[in-house]
User: Which sequence fits this backbone?
């Protein structure tokens, strides 16, 4: 099953060949990098500013600034309280995409989803395990039986 590895850029809709899991094309990525540089130099020029001041002042999309914080691009920079909202509940966090509570919830949901997806396979696996277990306990029983006699 080979899939042609092309994709529409999530931003400009242009068709491109992604490297790995890239969602945007090289042009958009270059534009992003340029913007990131602008954001970083804005922090350098305005040490001690907050995230909101940075977003307003630099004119960069909040999402880009948040992603940069998440990537640790402002470590040891002048940005104060570098945090961004949890993608689910909006609580301010400093790492990952979600806060720890949402992460727990999502993990549980993902598990349920995976369970539902694999229920057939799991049922088959369980059956195999059960019969393997039975064989094992039977042989154990026989061994015990032998040692008693
Ligand atoms: Zn693009
Ligand atoms: Zn959350």
Assistant:
């Amino acid at each position: 099953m080979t899939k042609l590895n092309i994709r529409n850029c999530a931003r400009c809709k242009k068709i491109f060949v992604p490297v790995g899991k890239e969602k945007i094309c090289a042009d958009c990525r270059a534009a992003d990098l340029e913007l990131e540089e602008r954001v970083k130099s804005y922090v350098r020029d305005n040490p001690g500013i907050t995230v909101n001041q940075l977003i307003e002042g630099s004119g960069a999309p909040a999402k880009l600034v948040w992603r940069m914080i998440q990537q640790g691009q402002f470590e040891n920079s002048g940005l104060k309280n570098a945090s961004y909202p949890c993608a689910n509940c909006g609580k301010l966090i400093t790492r990952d995409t979600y806060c720890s509570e949402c992460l727990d919830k999502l993990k549980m949901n993902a598990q349920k989803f995976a369970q539902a997806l694999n229920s057939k396979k799991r049922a088959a696996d369980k059956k195999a395990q059960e019969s393997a277990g039975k064989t094992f306990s039977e042989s154990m029983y026989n061994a015990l039986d032998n040692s008693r006699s």
